[in-house]
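Could you join me in thinking about how sequence relates to backbone shape in a protein? To get us started, please write out a protein record for me. Would you write everything just below, so we can both look at the same thing?
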Amino acid sequence: HVQLVESGGGSVQAGGSLRLSCVAAESNAKSSMINYCMGWFRQSPGEEREGVAAISTSGVTYYSDSVRGRFTLSRGNARNTLTLVMNNLQPEDTAVYYCAADEFVESRACIVADERNNWGQGTQVTVS
């Protein structure tokens, strides 16, 4: 089981930037995050949760079409931190953003929200 803690949400005007961070910890002290796919997902009121950006177990990064070119995802060397830099934010980016992680997930499956099992508590991003 993995615990995820997000931070960095807030309010910004259109065209502004925000940086989201996620810190992960495996509850089993003998395990590490090295084999985990990690990603950011978001959910607006009345909408389904959708994938924003994710890094697969092997380190391949995926972005949704709506954020490609504006958002940048990176993962720390210890593979237990995930950072999403969001530039040129637009009102349609307003949502609760969640960090998720699962072990041994390859390909675009990593960015599919329905297939994620471990979630953080979420952080609000509001763009006006």
User: Anything to note?
Assistant: The chain has a mean pLDDT of 93. DSSP finds no helices and eleven strands in the chain.
